[in-house]
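quick one, 135 residues, struct below
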Amino acid sequence: MKLLVVNGPNLNLIGTRETQIYGNVTFEAFFEDLKTKTSHELTYFQSNVEGELITALQQSKADGIILNAGGYTHTSVALRDCIAAISTPVVEVHISNIAGRESFRHDSLLSPVCKGCIFGFGLAGYHLAIQVFDL
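---
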């Protein structure tokens, strides 16, 4: 099975950004390790640009998508509409527990159109999301 992992804005800074929340391992290092722990074919895309994320989702040939939309989770109607429009199942992942953070992070525009959501388990959330596609 082919899975696409998509990270949104500021997630390129994992490993140096707010390490008390996001840890001190870069996502690239984590992703290389993640690929060795699954039989699925994983590819990765990251962008700080909303339209580029939408294009990646629309053009994906993957069987499933794991999406951490970062701050766009709470603001992007366009990203929500994209997820609703594509047939590829999307699992929403957040490293932190968005319900336990600032009130503006409590609502996800994306959750209602995703296959499922995983919040608050650190980078292990990506491992959990892969398992969703095995169900």
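The chain has one domain: 2-132.
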